[in-house]
Amino acid sequence: MFDLVPFRKRHGDLMNSLFGKNFIEDFFNNDFFLSSTSGIRADIKENEKEYIVEAEVPGVEKEAIEVELRDNYLTISANHNEEINEERENYIRKERRSGRISRSFYVENVKNEDVKASYKNGILTVVLPKSKEGKSRGYKININ
Questions:
Q1: Closest by alpha carbon to 60, among 102, 14, 19, 23?
Q2: Burial class (CB in 10 A: 0-12, 13-18, 19+), 122
Q3: HEC string of the chain?
Q4: Among 22, 68, 79, 141, whose Cα sits 20 to 30 Å from the Cα of 106?
Q5: Given pLDDT bands bounded at 50, 70 and 90, which one contains residue 128?
Q6: Quick count: other Cβ atoms within 10 Å of Cβ 40?
């Protein structure tokens, strides 16, 4: 009978034998693949008075984050630029990467003027006080 082995496993064994132990895992667990495929992860809480959004934006400076409330949508976006210059004997490595991530949440009946945002240790916290009124206008939120 045939020995059935998943393709990835067979492929990994071949690559590991050619390039060294754990080649496939090291290659695909590189930060480039993690950061380019992941977005903004968030927890949303609600109580009687407000909505609270806690969003993960690690490795991004506070000044590169934008928070906006427009037409009942809270939008969090961030620009990330990274440059690596590494020089060693016999080679020079220079890499640049940049990107923009964004996430929107539908929230209705929010008091625009009372929305507060803070950023600490890679976590953006946005507090959205509830209102009995209808649709919100465009409003950019400052981050403390």
A1: 102
A2: exposed
A3: CCCCCCHHHHHHHHHHHHHCCCHHHHHHCCHHHHHHHCCCEEEEEECCCEEEEEEECCCCCHHHEEEEEECCEEEEEEEEEEEEEEEECCEEEEEEEEEEEEEEEECCCECHHHCEEEEECCEEEEEEEECCCCCCCCEEECEC
A4: 79
A5: very high
A6: 18
CATH class of 40-141: mainly beta
The answer to whether the CB of 69 falls within 8 A of the CB of 139 is: yes
**Is the per-residue pLDDT at 20 higher than 70?**
no
11 token code pair: 């492929």
